Amino acid sequence: MRYPKTHKEETRRKLIDSSRALLKQNGLDATGVDALMSSVGLSGGAFYSHFPSKQALLEEVIREEIQHSVSMLKPPSPEGGPTLAQRTKAYLSVQHVEHPEMGCVLPALGAELGRIPPEVKSIIEDGLKEMHAIWYDEVKDEGAAWAAIAQSVGAVILARAVKSDATRREILKGTRLNMERLIQQHTTGTPSS
Amino acid sequence: MRYPKTHKEETRRKLIDSSRALLKQNGLDATGVDALMSSVGLSGGAFYSHFPSKQALLEEVIREEIQHSVSMLKPPSPEGGPTLAQRTKAYLSVQHVEHPEMGCVLPALGAELGRIPPEVKSIIEDGLKEMHAIWYDEVKDEGAAWAAIAQSVGAVILARAVKSDATRREILKGTRLNMERLIQQHTTGTPSS
DNA sequence: GTCTATATCTAGATAGAC
DNA sequence: GTCTATCTAGATATAGAC
After folding, report:
1. pLDDT tens, A161-187?
2. Is the N end or the C end of chain B the one with fewer CB atoms within 10 Å?
3. Residue B11: inside a domain, yes or no?
4. Which nucleotides of D are covered by protein (CB under 7 A)?
5. What total number of domains does chain A contain?
6. Integer distance in angstroms from CA B160 to C1' C3?
């Protein structure tokens, strides 16, 4: 064979990884198959040896992105890593806002997630339920757990939608303060270890 | 003249109003000039008698949408209308989530707002500052005011991104409860009238 | 001011050579 | 598996008739 059997899966992996960044940066509609392929040094026509359609790639990308976002929110295995409060602080950082291509898929795609087919919405839903469980474990309150996720995602979206750095920082700082308060209110009396 | 002088502005008005709904429903990129024009019963070519480009229409639409969202958040002139808490409850409703075309522009466009030109981001920013002032007036806390806006927008986006009605309702209900708590915490000791 | 026709460009997807 | 060439469809925008 002209290509080693590992070649296809390597190319596929590179394509997915590159697509994850590009799609988060520019959105689902605005990123064409040609752009995705040339980002891994291939021509547009070769795409269809790897996926039957652009939609199929989008599904895979969203699946991996959601899985990744959940794993980033998850507490580190034994002990010792950053706390949920600390991970949230990093989420609500200028660094995250300025680099959607490396960040969470939820604020990067935003409203586009409301327009994807139901099968893909199921993936989002499962991921959000996992995130909710992680937050619930911390704050022991169903509502507060959903609100924590909502305001994290919302703050990053809003911070990206304003022009000035000053307002961007205000939004992030304000939300960080509120999140600290939310965590503290729901964990007082519950020793953390 | 073949058309009365009020005709152009009437057509323009109808076009903008119709565009506001369509763009919020389908997104900025996915809605073409032809679709916008045929929604008011005209052909695509006639568009350019009203706007020099699609981008110019988008700016006008976003400007009016932001202005409208601010006016919806604003307390009714003298007294007697719904409270901020009540208006927030309506914002976090299934009705709002299921009808993006009639709802707030921020969750309807979401991440797309992060990719518009700086001039338009200024419009968003000014509107967000007005919304922040309205919230600050209620809760007297800069951070809580930003967090209130962020979690409202975020919750609507997330509610639209999940498949099941049950989870949709959970997200909205949880966020509503948290918003009530936020308002109550920051207003105790401050009589409301 | 609006129409039809068109120019130009880009999109997703397919066909056949290598 | 990847390439080039191409099909079809859709986009933004323009030109000229009415």
Report:
1. 999 999 999 999 999 999 999 999 999
2. C
3. yes
4. 1-5, 10-16
5. 1
6. 40
DSSP A118-171: HHHHHHHHHHHHHHHHHHHHHH--HHHHHHHHHHHHHHHHHHHH-S-HHHHHHH
Would you say residue A193 lies in a domain?
no
Q: What is the pLDDT of residue B3?
A: 66
Spell out the residues 6+ positions from residue B185 whose beta carbon is closer than 8 angstroms to its own. Answer: none
Between CA A65 and C1' D2 the distance (Å) reads 28
Whole-angstrom Cα Rg for chain A: 19
- Calculate the alpha carbon distances from A119 to A28, A153, B39, B161, B163 in Å: 16, 22, 30, 11, 8
Task: Please write the tens of the pLDDT for every residue from B136-189.
Answer: 999 999 999 999 999 999 999 999 999 999 999 999 999 999 999 999 999 986
Q: Which domain holds residue A135?
A: 7-188
B46 CB below 7 A from strand C atoms = yes
Contact A174 B100 (CB under 8 A): no
User: Would the Cβ of B8 be found within 7 angstroms of any atom in strand C?
Assistant: yes
Share of chain B above pLDDT 90, in %: 90
Give the pLDDT confidence score for residue B193 in this predicted structure.
47
DSSP state of A31: -
At B27, which CATH number? 1.10.357.10
Tokens 């009605």 correspond to what residue? B165
The CA distance from B73 to A174, in Å, is 19
- Write down the pTM of the prediction: 0.97
CB of B192 nearer than 7 A to strand C: no
Please judge whether B122 and A163 are an interchain contact, meaning their C-beta atoms are less than 8 angstroms apart: yes
Express each pLDDT in A58-106 by its tens digit. Answer: 999 999 999 999 999 999 887 789 999 999 999 999 999 999 999 999 9
| Residues 19-58 (A) with a CB less than 8 A from some CB of B | 26-27, 29-30
In a domain, A108, yes or no: yes
Chain B residue at shortest CA distance from A24: B111
B144 touches chain A (CB under 8 A): yes
